[in-house]
Amino acid sequence: MASHAPDGPFRPSREDRDRRIAAIDIGSNSIRQIVAEVFPNGEIRVIDEMKAAPRLGAGLSATGQLDEARMDDAVEALSRMATLALQQGCKRIEVVATSAVRDASNGQVFLTRVRRETGLKPRVLRGEEEARLAFRSALAHFELGLGRSIVMDIGGGSLELALAADGLVERLATFPFGAIRLTEQFLAGRTGPKGVKKLRKHVRAEVKKVLPVRDWRGAAVIGSGGTFTNLAGMFLAEQGIKVRNVHGTRIPPHEVEQLLEMLSHLTIDERLQVPGLNAGRADIIIAGLAVAAEVLARVEPREFTASRFGIREGLLLEAARVQAVIADPGEARARSVVGFAERCHYEVPHAKQVQELALQLFDAVGERIGCQPDERESLSDAALLHDVGYHINYAEHHKHSFHLIMHADLLGIPPDEQVVIAHVARYHRGGEPKRKHTAWAELDPDSRERVRRLSALLRVADGLDRGHAGAVERVKVRWLDRALRLTPVPRRASDPLRLELWGASRKAGLLAAVAGVPVEIVAPDGTVIQD
Question: Domain range for residue 177?
Answer without folding.
Answer: 128-315
